[in-house]
Each structure stands twice: as structure tokens, then as C-alpha cells.
Amino acid sequence: MKPEPLPLPPSPNWYCARCSDAAPGGIFGFAARTSVFLVRVGPSAGANPGAPPFRVVGELVGHTERVSGFTFSHHPGQYNLCATSSDDGTVKIWDVETKSVVTEHTLHQHTISALHWSPTVKDLIVSGDEKGVVFCYWLNRNDSQHFFPEPRTIFCLTCSPHHEDLVAIGYKDGIVVIIDISKKGEVIHRLRGHDDEIHSIAWCPLSGEDCLPVNQEENSEEPDIPNGKLVAETPITKDCYLATGSKDQTIRIWSCSRGRGIMVLKLPFLKRRGGGVDPAVKERLWLTLHWPNNQPTQLVSSCFGGELLLWDLTQSWRRKYTLFSTSAEGQNHSRIIFNLCPLKTEDGKQLLLSTSMDRDVKCWDMTTLECCWTLPSLGGFAYSLAFSPVDVGCLAIGVGDGMIRVWNTLSIKNNYEVKSLWQGVKSKVTALCWHPNKEGCLAFGTDDGKVGLYDTCSNKPPQISSTYHKKTVYRLAWGPPVPPMSLGGEGDRPSLTLYSCGGEGIVLQHNPWKLSGEAFNINKLVRDTNSIRYKLPVHTEISWKGDGKVMALGNEDGSIEIFQVPNLKLLCTIQQHHKLVNAIVWHHEHGSRPELSCLIASGSNNAVIYVHNLRTVLESNPESPVTITEPFRTLSGHTAKVTSLAWSPHHDGRLVSACYDGTAQVWDALREEPLFNFRGHRGRLLCVAWSPVDPECIYSGADDFCVYRWLTSMQDHSRPPQGKKCVELEKKRLSQPKPKLKKKKKPTLRLPGKQDSSIVTEDESSRETSVPVENGVSDQDGEEEAQEPELPPSPVVPGEAVSCISVSLGNRNEKSKVTVNSKATSLKKEPPKEKPEALLKKRKARSMLPLSTSLDHRSKEELHRDCLVLATATHAKELNEDVSADLEERFHLGLFTDRATLYRMMETEGKGHLESGHPELFHQLMLWKGDLKGVLQAAAERGELTDSLVAVAPVAGYSVWLWAVEAFAKQLCFQDQYVKAASYLLSIHKVYEAVDLLKSNHFYREAIAVAKARLRPEDPVLKDLYLSWGSILEKDGHYAIAAKCYLGATSAYDAAKVLARKGDAASLRTAAELASIAGESELAASLALRCAQELLLVKNWVGAQEALGLHESLQGQRLVFCLLELLCRHLEEKQPPEVRSPSSVYHQWATGSEGDLVQKVTGVWRNTFSVDTPEQCRAALKKLQDVKYPSATSNTPFRQLLLHVCHDLTLAILSQQTASWEEAVPALLQAVLRSYTSGNFTLMQEIYSAFLPSGCDYLRDKLGDLSLATAAFKSLEAFFIYGQLYEVWWSLCGLGPESSIWVKSTVPAEQREPEDSASAEDAEPAAAAAQPQSSPPSGPGLRLSGESERLLSACRELFSERHASLQASQRTVAEVQETLAEMIRQHQKSQLCKATANGPSRDDPGQEAEQAPSRPQSPREESNAPVSLPELTRRLTEANKKIAEFPESIKAWPFPDVLECCLVLLHIGSQCPGAVNPEMQQQAEELLQKYGHTRAYRRYCQTLHT
Fold first, then answer.
1. Nearest to 81 by CA among 54, 44, 118, 113
2. Which string of b and e fits 137-168 if b means at least 16 CB within 10 Å?
3. C-alpha–C-alpha distance, residues 127 and 89, integer Å
4. Distances (CA, A) of 1292 to 653, 1249, 1296, 1331, 1341
5. How many angstroms separate the Cα of 1130 from the Cα of each of 1098, 1200, 1243, 1246, 1324?
6. How far apart (Å, rounded) are the C-alpha atoms in residues 250 and 615?
7. Orientation of helix 1361-1395 relative to helix 1478-1491, angle to 10°
8. CA nearest 356: which of 420, 269, 424?
9. How far apart are CA 544 and CA 553, in angstroms?
10. Which residues, at least 6 apart from 1342, have a Cβ–Cβ distance to it below 8 Å?
């Protein structure tokens, strides 16, 4: 049995009455997001000795939205069954052993809020929803009923453990009802007393009402009227106590026989140790209950701040309780508790499990009331993983819930020893990095741009950098200080500084000694050191080499720049990726091969991982930056963007990658081979880290809120899943809410029309907010509960029982048939009636003085009184108090008195207009008064300025007009009318403010138009506009328009770069032409070369040459492409017509010339490219010698191999043209070696036939005996003989394409059987060479030709004793390394078997199969005693010593395998006796006996001797 991956699971869902439960025997489950996680508890968990007895064993996956309820079946024989409810509207029944769905139903039409499996009826599952509908579903008979006891929101429900028909339901408004499902849901009792939400209901474990002391006077009460009418007394058999917990901070004990409360427990305000949340905050309370089975006089409840209380119900008047975990500090939950569930283990222990808002699952011993163990969880995406280089095994996890987890992965006593850091974070933690030397120093970055330092060894809050990034921090790295921070003395500056890369594209250098100081943007240093005048790329990734001398920066355009300390001199640029770079990692420096420390792996938004070897660049330290366009190794297999990479610290060249395709992949980077693929996550992977202790252990995090620990050897797959992005499509499908069934054809219990509309609104709102939620609640909700409107009362006739609906669930694929008996009918909307013509008349304009007009229409007596008051005021010399009071009361008389009274009347009328919502009339009144400035001020304060008011503002003066325009512009900005606001600012000549307003609100086109029209051409604001708009367009993928912006900003370099980001041939050509026009010759050359390579993929030779012709410096590449075209044409002519490619577009000179290939090439160079003189050839040779390509492997694509081979052949021909034979021979040999190492034997032979048709004697004469290239010539000649030797052998077997040259037949032609001719490309020469004993014997009518006999005599050159000895030593080194690797793997297997000894049986055949060696062994190898480690070390040392003794001339150039040539020659001799010289045959046998002791040749030697 394979050990399952160890997960750090998501947090249990919040604010659910029952989303965790436990089954007898030791299985516990809790709902987390859209699934349920299962935990095995007790001795059967198989935990390590001394560790807490629990283990996460699986996950129930199937719901598409948040799981709101979870309950086990507690009936013997079906403990493996459980039920879940979800916001997707389904109730599913599961088998936890198979983790599959048994059945499901979708009866509810609204969000399910409560669920319970009846403890008395083994197949009954009861569920309730937010609209008050209760469904009873019987699993075995596939039937259901539904009831509607109350038109209220259900919060929780619990079935009675004593009476199979009773169900207690708690509602949002505090009402508790008990219904009888056998009587169509009749309400037995309505229990009133709580004032707020009912969070939990617990039945007393004992039936009857004798277990609790109750006052005698309470028993002599008159009968209750539970449902509005007098009913008979409930039978004694249904007597039982019921406990309810509410948000109103009280626990109430109810008597079911009397239908009333008998006890009230008020929660105490406990003083939290170490402070905490104010317990009086009512919104933070969730009161859950548990009534222990063996303790009916005790009750467990939660409290305000995460405490657990054990109440003594025998002394309720004293409010006596016991606090859990009083002896240990910090063992309690730190926040409110949502669920409590009991569990009895196999060894009889009574446990209690709790889930809380602090994201911990805790297990409590009910005997001691102490915490046994804690299971931590994650409340957000796992963004980052980082192992401490000092405290080995300490893993830091950056999580999207605003906390950092520090996991001690080496803890023996606890697999989940996790510490949470939350102080000062307050945001999603997206980046982490440990200090390389200082213990406990952890740097973190957040999504709001914060960078800080945590001391994990103390409880101090973190230090926060005063410089924030504008966007998310994506990467942190420790590296040596660079100027200006490195300019101080040794004691004045830190040895390492912190570098952070943010989403806005800049890298900041922070001083860890003084985070309060300003961080330094390294772009300035890069620009000054390298004299860069163009726009720097947007940085997305930073990585320092282990020795701290070199830094790599990844960019948004896919390029990677390598800088050298101390001044960040640009060494080279890697132009490989064409999309945003997400990850860059340097190979470690402590391996057995130090040269691998120059390997750098990178991943981007495209799915390919590239590995580059920068050893040559770092050692040569070039004066000018080098551009690298060819990778050292290419790792292909992922189908989505790569997010994280990590080299194994235990192996050489082993890499693990995390990808959006939902898998983590382990690669052998040196062999370009996928090894292991992990598919345990349900989401997109975001981070990965290799254990620094265990070579097989890897940790990975994803957006499924999980971190997994898994072993490489335990994986069933070796490569990522192929095809479409299946994980992303599946994730999208699962995240979509399930479509609701149409209601018009399915009769349901109807509610009033107003209620129906509220249901629709709720469905729509829930659909709009269907974003990924953390912990079961969305970000908008946070930790507070969403307020829901109360439902209107149901229109049920009083005294009439609510009818039930019987639903038959025959086939789940068919629509449920429902029979409804309800008198409620739906209201039909009447069509709108046409308005009469009288109502269509134009309405009369509103009066300016409506209050005065109305006062003039009062009674005659009041009007007469107005006249008298007016006359008194007019003729009186001095007004007394009575007259003044009358005038104030009758303000409308101001129209006939003095101006002051008139102003009072206007003020009163204006207030009336404002109160009635007509501010424009108020403004007109103020204008009548002549107070224009006051009108403008009042309108500005109320946000009611209009165009007309601003138009008349100049009447009040110039300053007033300026102020009014600015105020109106601000008002327009609040109304999102930015363009209009900018136009008003321009009217007062505030051009810069108008441009800035348009720019800040992304109206770049309008801003540029204004700036171009109103500002000077050299104004820097205009250039900044172009650059800002160009950056945004570049991010959105509008590359052509972005290029126009950069051209407008006179930055042609950036314009060419952004055009090239598209990557197609047309864009690259346009970018190259643009760069050439702008004088950027180096960029133009690189882009033209990329364009030609893209056209090469579609065999458009004409277009490729035209692209290369754009730049003069690419003359050498034109010669390479010319040779490549002629070689491809040459190879294609040798193929049958039916297999030739019809899409190739060749030049005319490639099809019409005659002669051999070299003559064609030199002729085209001379006639078409004007390369004729030695000086021209020497100039082209010098340019091409600067281009270096990596060595070929068996995985190198054929087109790329052809290009590299043609590059070497071009160097050889140019060297011949300049009579530089010492350079021609190594170049020709390099082309042969590329074909040989890639396994393309046909191409190697074509090179020899085209460039050395008459053998190597011609080159020997040119070189002479004392030439420096003699060693290369010997290797070239050896490979020439090696190839012809194989052709002779295949001719004997009938496999060669030209058998007649080497073999003569003595049988007449008509007696020979025809043979199928196979093309050279389809043959597998490597396979034939590897298994010579399988070749069929030659016929009796075949003999070797004279040419073959001359070749066999020349094979003496292949039997080099020195090369055979060198190759034997190299094979010994490889064999010892392979043996050591096998020993390490077997040791790890044995350790793993010991660790899992308590779990699977020793006799398990699957386990025996795992312990078997992965490689079949021969009988001789099995009989040999195992070699000890000192013996292997001795062999390795001796072999390396022998290799070091050989001269460099032998080791510099490869040589054909001497033993392989001996085997082929002996095989030819066995097929044609007498054809091989006996002396040569004896020499071959002696070489095989002397050096054929390795496993690779032992079997073949045995075959020949037998």
C-alpha cells in the first residue's frame, strides 16, 4: 500500500450549524470550501510512534459550491455512510470507504442551511433551507416528503435521538419549533424565549425528564396552547429535554412535555489571557452546544472568544461551569467556535472535536478537558513556500488568509507542528525568503505591496519597510548590496540586503538594518552602469546565484538579463521565452559536478521550461553584452503556464516544476527526461519546494488552499497530462453554480408574490457574487453575518394544517413528480392601460413662490387679517413687538413691505424648494436677490452646479468664475464625467491639470490630443503620456498601437521590442525594419534572425533570406541558410516523390544547378551573395565563429539539428575557401559529432558523402603531420571508417540502401527474392548497433566486394588501445555512479518501509512489488555479492586517476566506441568467414577481453564466445 500524500488542508467552513461530524470507530470529517476532508482518529490512524493519533485520509469531491452541512450515519453497519448539503442545491449521500457518491437529490429550490441524519431511522436524512422548507428523504425507498412549518429562515435542525418522528428546528429570529413528521409536519411546540439566531440544538441523551432537578411549582402549570388551539396533553413517551444556543448570548433548556423553558444560562464574560477581542461584540458570537451521552447533567458550550465551557446543570442557579484546558497556556481556540462533535475511538476514549474561526481543528479529551492535538489549516491560496537554510526542515508558507505558517517538518512528535504569524501582515502573503545566515529571519511580501521582516524566534511584531510597491510583491531575494548601499564601510552596511520585485515591474533594494529608510530602485544603477537610453523592461522575477556574484532578472517580455556585481554590469540577455517570466532558479553549487552551478532554469507563461548553461559567459566576462537565443536543454510537457521551479539539493540536474495544469513535474534536466508527475492537487499549482533533508520529499502549494507533502517514487505518472488544459476547464466547470430548474412547469408550494420576487433577487445576487470564497464565506461577508430581510407571513388559513407534498424519486434523471395541495394562487400581472388624452397634456410650470401663493388662498378672515397687519406695518412710525411677530409669521407679506422682509420671504421659499427637491428654483431665487456668489457656493456644497450656473459666473467677477469652474470640474469628476471636467479646466488655461486628470482616469488618447495641441513639443509631459499609454497597451496585448506610442516618445528601441513580442514572422520583420530605420543595428539583426528562424519552420526559404537581407551583419547567417536550403533540397531529392513536402518555397538557384553539394554551395555564394574573395570569406567566417550552439542530444528537434549542422559546415567551407585547413577540420568534425550524438546516422553519412566523397586522404595531405588539428583529423577519419563499417554490416543483413557497393551476389537475379527498400530515415541504425547478435545470417550466395575488403583492412585505425582504455575508464565511472544511485534508492525504500510498518501488512504483495528492484538483473549479477561503498569509492578514484593520465589530445575529441567496432567486425567475420584478417580478428578479441568487463559489453561478449 502506497503512503498517501500528507496534506495541510483548507480551513473548515464558517457560520454553518453542522459542517463537521464524526462516526463511531474513529473517522472524522469537516467541510472545507466545496469538499469534505476525512481524518482517521485513534490507533487505526497509523501515525508515527509518539505522534498524535490522527491522519488525513481523503477528500469527498463532487459539489460545485460551498458545502453547508455534513453529517454521518450513526447506525451500526452503515458507519461508512454520510450526507452533505451544498449551496449548489444538492444533498449527496457518500460512501467514505470508496469516497464516491451513493445517491443525491436536488429537491430544494433555495439555499440549504441545515442537515441531519436521523439517529433513530437508519435511512432518513432531514434538511432545511433559508425559506423555511423542510425535506425528509428516505434513502432505501428513494422517497421524500416536504413540510413548511414556518415562513422563516432555518438556521439549524436536529432529529430526536429518542422519538423517530420528532425534529427540532431553530430559526433566524430566535423561534424554535418541534414538528412531528408522521403528522405531515404538524408543529408540536413553538418555543419562544430567544431574541436572535438559533445556532445549535442539542437533545438530552436520556429520554424522560427525571435527570435534571426542576422546581415543583413549575410542574403544576395549566396546559399549553402550542399551535394556536388547545390540544390534548402530549404522551409521556415523548418527554425529553432540549438545549438551544443563540446569538443572544444565552443557553436555554426546554421541557418537551410542557413546551416551555426550565433553565436559562447566560454566557460569562471571560477575561482572555493575553488580551483578545472584546467579548461584548455581539456579531462575533457563535454559540454551539454538545450534550455528552454519558453525562446528562453536564453540557458543553462555546463562548465569546473561543473558550469551551462545561456547565453543571444540577446547579443552574449558581451558573457553575468548568473551563476547558486551564492548565496549558495557548491550548484554547483564539476565536469563536462553530462546531462541536463527539468521537469514541477504538480504544474507548471519549473525544470532542471542535472547528473554529482561528482555522484550527482541535481534539479534546472529555476525561481531562485538555487538548490532545491540533490540526492546522489554510484559509487562502498557498502562494509561496520557502525552507530555512539555517533551521533545516523549517518550512514557511505564505497564505492568502493574511497569515504566515511556519511548519517544522522534522518534528517526530507531531506531523503538524505549525506556528502562525499574523501580526502586521493584514494582507495576502505572496512572497517569502529566509535569510541565508541569520536564524529565524524571514522576509515576506504581500499583495498590497508591503515588504517586511519577521523574527520567527520571538513574538515581536515584524519590521515593515517604509517603501511600498504599488502592486503585489511577487519575489524576494537576499543578495549582496549594490550602490549606493554598498558604498559605506564594512561595519556601516549589512553583508546582505533584501531585494523585492513587485507587480509594477521594478526591483527595490531594502536595507535590513534600516527598513524605515527609503528603498533603492536598482533600475537607476542598471541604466547608469550600462549607459542605457531606452526604456527598461518590466521586471517580473529576480534570482541571485549562490555565490552572490551574478543576478538574473526576468522580464515581462520573456527576456532574462544577467548582471554582475558590484555595479550590475549587463553580461548577457537570454531571448528564449516570449511571454512573462514567472520563475528563475540557479543550480546549487554543492553537487559532484561544480560546472553545473552555471545552469539556470526558467519558466514563463508559456508551458516550456528552458535550461541555459552560462559557464562560458561568466568565465569570459565579455566587454559588451551577449545575446543567447539557444537553450542548453528544453523541458516540454506542461500544458499551461509554469509558476515555480526548484532544483533538487540532493541530485545533479534534477528539477521540479509547478504549473497551472494542476500538476508538479520532476525532470532530469540534463537528459531532458520527465521522471515523476504529482496530480494530488485539485487546483492550479502556485509554488513548489524540495525538502532539504529527504531526497524524495517535495512540498507543493496551490489555489485549492492545500499544501501537500509527497514522495517522488510513489507517483503513478511520469509526465504531465497531455491535450487541452483539462484542469483549468474542469475547475471552471466545477466553480460554476448549478443551473436552477425552471419553476413554471414544476408546481411547488407557492408563497406571496412579494416573496417570490425576493427569491429571484437573492438567486441573482448569489450568482453575481459567485467568486472563490475562503472558509465558506465570501470576502464581502468577512467574519460578520449577512443580514437577510424577514420573510412576510405565509397566507395559511389559521387553524388549517399545512399540507405536505409527496415526491416520488424513481429516476433521478427525470423531473420529480410533485402533488401539491395548496390554496395559495399566484397573482397575474395586468397589462399596462393606455393613458387618457387629458393626462398627455403639457404640465404647468412649477411656481417660483408656491408658499406665498398658497397663503394667499386661505380663508377670508385670514386675508382680512393680512390687510390689517400690512396697513399697521406701513403706517406705523415704529413697529412694536406684536406687529413684528405678525410680520415674521406672515412672511408672504414681504412682497408688499420693505426689502428685508422680502429677503426673508425668499429665504423661506428657497428652503421649501430645497426640501421638495427643486434646487434649480432655489438658485433662481438667489439670482433674483443678486447673490450670485452665494448661489454658486450653495450649489457647490450640495454638488448641484450646472452648466448654466457656471456660464453666468463671470458676472460675479473673474476670481469667482475661476473658483466656480474648478468646483464644477471636481463635481464632474465625482460624476465620472472626466472629459467634460478636463474641458472646463482648459477653459481657465489649466492645461497640465487637465492632462493629468485625463491620464489618471486612463483617457490617454484625449490627454495626448490636448497635450499636443496646447503644450510645447519638447515638454516632458507629452513623452510621459506616450510611455504610460504604451505600457498599458503593451500589457493588454495591443502591440502595434503601443509601438506607435513609443515612436511618438522617440523611443524606437522600445517600439521594435514591443512589436516583436507577438512572435510571428510578420511582426518580427516589421520590428527588424523599424529598428534598422532607427539605427538600432544590433536589435535589428537579432530580430531579423528570429524572423528568419520563424520562416524556417514553415520552409519559406525565400522569405527567410529576405528577412536576413534586412541587415548587413547577417551576411554570414545568409550563407548558413543558403547551405541549409541546399542540404534540405538534396535530402528531399533522395526521398520518394510521394513523401516529399509540397509546401516548401525554394529559390530558383536551389533547384536548377548541377554538380555535387559543395560545388552548388560555393557557386551560389559566388553568384548570388557575391562571396568570392578570401577576404570576404574571412570576414564572414569571423562573424559566424562568434555564434555558439549547445551540443546536440537525442531529443534535439531535427530542424534545429539541421541548422546547427549547417552552421558548422558553413564554417568548414569558409575555412577551405581561405585555406585555413586547421579550422576546417574541427568544424567538419563538429558537424559529424552533432549528427552522431543525436542518433541521426543517415545525416552523418550524407555529410561524409557530400563533403568527403573520396575519403579523408585529401585533408591529410592539406594538414601535414605536424598540424595542431591532427587529433581532430584522426577523430574525423575514425568516424568516417566507423560509418562505412556499419554500412558493410547492414549490407550483409540486407538493410543498407546501397548494398551492391559492399556485397556481391553469386546467385542469379531471377532466383533472388525481392526486398522492400526502406528509407534511411526510417531505419534504426542505433538499435541495430546495440543488438548485433539479433541480425540474421547472410545467405550462402553473398561475398564481400573489393571495396569492403579494403575498408576492413583500414579498420585497424579504429582499434586504438589508448582510446579503448580511456573509454573503459569512463564506463567504469558511469557504472559506479549508477550503482551508488541504486544503493541510495534501495536505502530510501527500506527506510520508507520501516516508517509505514504500522500501516500495511508485511505480507502485502503490493508492498513486495514496490521493494523489488526496478531494473532486471542477469543471473551473474544476482549471484555476485553486493559491492561495499569503500570498494566503489576505490574504483571511482582509480578510474578518475587513469582518465587524468591521458593526454589532452586524446580527451579533446570524441572517438567511436572501440569495443563496439570490435563487436561489429567480429560479427562480419562470423557471417563471411575469411573476410577479416585473422590478425585484426585476434586484436579485436583481445580488446574485448581486456576492456569488455562492464555490464554494457559482458552480455555481447558471452554471445560471441558461445
1. 118
2. bbbeebebbbbbbbbbbbbbbbbbbbbebbbb
3. 11
4. 42, 21, 8, 15, 11
5. 18, 17, 11, 9, 21
6. 73
7. 30
8. 420
9. 9
10. 1292, 1303, 1304, 1305, 1306, 1472
Peptide bond into 1136 cis (omega under 30): no
What's the chain's length in residues? 1506
Spatial separation of the C-alpha atoms in residues 1408 and 1418, rounded to whole Å:
20
- 419-438 confidence digits (pLDDT tens): 999 988 989 999 999 999 99
Taking the C-alpha atoms of residue 189 and residue 256, their distance in angstroms, rounded to an integer, is 8
Long-range contacts of 1150-1156 (CB under 8 A, 24+ apart): 1150/1101, 1150/1125, 1150/1126, 1156/1250, 1156/1253
**Rounded distance between C-alpha atoms, residue 72 and residue 60, angstroms:** 13
Going by C-alpha positions, the residue among 1188, 193, 1365 that lies closest to residue 628 is 1188
Residue 451, SS3 per DSSP = strand
DSSP state of 591: S
Contacts of 114 (CB under 8 A, 6+ apart): 17, 18, 69, 85, 127, 128, 154, 155, 156, 157, 169
Q: 3-state secondary structure string, 912-931? A: HHHHCCCHHHHHHHHHHHCC
**Residue 682 per-residue DSSP state:** S
Sequence letter at residue 1014: R
Rounded CA Rg of the chain: 43
What's the start-to-end Cα distance of the chain, in Å? 44
Amino acid at 1254: S
- Comparing CA positions, the residue from 911, 917, 947, 953 lying closest to residue 935 is 953
Instruction: Give me the amino acid identity at 350.
Output: Q
**Where does residue 1451 rank: exposed (0-12), middle (13-18), buried (19+ CB within 10 A)?**
middle
Give the whole-angstrom CA distance, residue 503 versus residue 894: 67
The β-bridge relationship of strands 569-574 and 626-628 is parallel
The x, y and z cell numbers of residue 818, run together, are 410533485
Distance CA 467, CA 453 (A): 13
C-alpha cell read off for 806: 409527496
Instruction: Place 1420 in a pLDDT band, splitting at 50, 70 and 90.
Output: very low
- Please write the tens of the pLDDT for every residue from 737-748: 444 444 444 443
For residues 1121 and 1128, give the distance between their C-alpha atoms in angstroms, rounded to a whole number. Answer: 10
Q: How confident is the model at residue 1133 (pLDDT cuts 50, 70, 90)?
A: confident
Distance separating alpha carbons of residues 505 and 541, to the nearest angstrom: 9
The alpha carbon of residue 1459 and the mean position of all alpha carbons in its chain are separated, in whole angstroms, by 51
| Structure confidence at residue 488 (pLDDT) | 65
Residue 715: phi and psi, rounded to 5, are -90, 140
Contact 287, 200 (CB under 8 A): yes
Distance CA 144, CA 138 (A): 6
Q: Percent helix, strand, coil in the chain (nearest 5)?
A: 35, 20, 40
Residue 813: its pLDDT value, please? 40
Structure confidence at residue 1347 (pLDDT): 67
Contact 1082, 1063 (CB under 8 A): no
Mean pLDDT for the chain overall: 81
